[in-house]
Amino acid sequence: MSETTVDDRARYRANPTVLQALKSPRMLTREVLAGLVVGLALIPEAIAFSVIAGVDPKVGLFSSFIMAVSIAFLGGRPAMVTAATGAVALVIAPVAPTYGLDYFIATVILAGIFQVVLGVLGVAKLMRFIPRSVMVGFVNALAIFVFSSQFPQLIDVPWLVYPLVALGIVVMIVMPRITKVVPAPLVSVIIVTAVVLAFAIAVPTVGDQGELPRSLPSLFIPNVPLTWETFGIIAPFALGVALVGLMESLLTAKLVDEITDTHSNKSREAWGQGVATVLSGFFGGMGGCAVIGQTMINVKASGARTRISTFCAGVFLFVLVVVFGDFVGTIPMAALTAVMIMVAICAFDWHSVRPSTLKRMPKSETFVMVATVVLVLLTHNLAVGVVGGVLVASVLFVRRVAHFVSVTRTEAYGVARYVVDGELFFASSNDLTTLFSYSDDPASVVIDLSGSHVWDASTVAALDAIETKYAALGKSVEIVGMNEASELMRGRLTGGFE
User: Fold this and answer.
1) Can you tell me the distance from the alpha carbon of 394 to that of 372, in angstroms, rounded to the nearest whole number?
2) Helix, strand or coil for residue 52?
3) How far apart are CA 273 and CA 288, in angstroms?
């Protein structure tokens, strides 16, 4: 037991660690500046998601602050950013307008409790059943979402917005070639803001997105009756928030694992997200989950690797909004739009859509990837897209494996011998009964299963049906070559289908 624990600790040990970052001025500077960029990028989206959820902008801002700070200590994936998100906002949107803010907050708290329970039960282990093609589709769909979410900032706006966005993008392309000490997105925001202020250019700003809060969040106890009726109202929404939040967070964590070539503790991340959501609710927040755009800014664009960046993102968000709200309000939306466009471009897996890749990749893999993207874009729900992609992948896999079963017949000395090769389960064993020549076979039949494995009750039922058909013709059947697991399965279930 202790050996396993030691192995797990070694596997999930952060690299670099927080202590290593604190001892390295260069690394610490990178982490802090990355947090500053992310904090800036969180502000307009938190406000926008609050509008989607039908609540005051401060609800989304407080939620982002509390969740980013708390997940820095509780989460299992260092450098991943958690805050208010559009996916959660879409699921919980009907609650506030219909039942009021108290029911809204109660829903958030219950969603967090559900997440803690699911995390403790090991729901994170289900991640291994998500194929790579679904992951690629998830990433590509998120990149498209991040890009399309910037359209409101690019449509029906002053024409000067476009050259400002272009300037921001050029800075982010050129800056890494000069130096990577300071995150390129931060330099881009500073330069674009300086140009706007210096020339008094009238363009939309962060302040135009909504009023920023001026005080600390306070404890919020929802005033709802603790009855089964209340539970019946909020539970469906809370479960939806819990599932969508966990799915987006765990998939984002897996993506960061691949980018940083490290392992993260998904079970800890799952219940950590739940605790952060509960804390968010008790301080008047709307909950949330991992945010792919800001995480990519933090990890890919800014090069952050530790919990310091996530913690700083939450702290800077709060300080910027509450203390420097007037200054933050002057930042042009064009600066943040440029950052998010670059995030979308960098996040998209361009290799997956290259003609050479599409030509080499099995058509089923490409179909699963495209299906995942289409489902996400049609439903605007990441959970639906991912679950749908997994189902499509499963169906295609089952169909492919089902055709791997072969039955070879030989006859010698008055005995018909059938050799079955392949995995026997519900898809492959349904046609098994049709592969035998019942009438033409001699009185003695041997079925050799040494090259196959019995996986389920459907296969046992098929073998029983084969024996019954031969028995009706007065012929004997001997099934040989079963491995131990198949023998146990058949011994337990045979004869139980009549």
Assistant:
1) 13
2) helix
3) 8
User: Are 414 and 476 spatial neighbours (Cβ–Cβ below 8 Å)?
Assistant: no
Q: Which residues pair with 453 in a beta bridge?
A: 423
Number of H helices, E strands in the chain: 22, 6
Ramachandran angles phi, psi of 406, nearest 5°: -130, 150
CA distance 118 to 387: 17
How distant, in Å, are the alpha carbons of 193, 315, 321, 324 from that of 216? 27, 12, 10, 14
Question: What's the rounded mean pLDDT across residues 132-138?
Answer: 83
Which pLDDT belongs to residue 364?
85
- What's CA 431's distance to the chain center, in Å? 37
By residue count, the chain amounts to 498
Contact 289, 240 (CB under 8 A): no
d(CA 363, CA 344): 26
Could you tell me if 376 and 138 are in contact, meaning their C-beta atoms sit under 8 angstroms apart? yes
**What DSSP designation does 420 have?**
E
Contact in structure between 12 and 76 (CB atoms under 8 Å): yes
Distances (CA, A) of 170 to 164, 175, 187, 346: 10, 8, 11, 14
Amino acid at 468: T
Beta strands in 12-63 (DSSP E): none
Per-chain mean pLDDT for the chain: 86
Question: What Cα–Cα distance (Å) separates residue 419 from each residue in 225, 431, 471, 482?
Answer: 66, 15, 20, 12
- Cα–Cα distance for residue pair 340/149, rounded to 1 Å: 9
* Paired sense of beta strands 406-412 and 415-424, if any: antiparallel
- HSE at residue 415, side-chain half, CA atoms within 13 A, is 9
Residue closest to 382 by CA, chosen among 240, 274, 285, 486: 240
pTM above 0.90, yes or no: no
pLDDT band at 325 (very low <50, low <70, confident <90, very high): confident
Contact present, 66 and 283 (Cβ < 8 Å): yes
